[in-house]
Design goal:
The protein is globular. The chain is of the alpha+beta class and about 70 residues long. Strand 2 and strand 3 form a beta hairpin.
Length: about 70
Amino acid sequence: TVDLPTLVTIFDMIVGEDGSQPYETMLFGCNEDGSVNYLELYCDRYYTRQEAVTAHKELLQRLKKGERIWE
């Protein structure tokens, strides 16, 4: 989870019972009170840990630049 000025929270987690795409990055908004709004803004899945880490870092950079990828 990362604090961003656009009130966004990012979660990484291992998913996929069959192991086909075991890594996932999801993007959620935050409510005014700071609680997570679980309406999904963005989701992508990856086959390898390295692919997930690289994509996660790229997503963070895009968000820090003010890009609103969910619109």
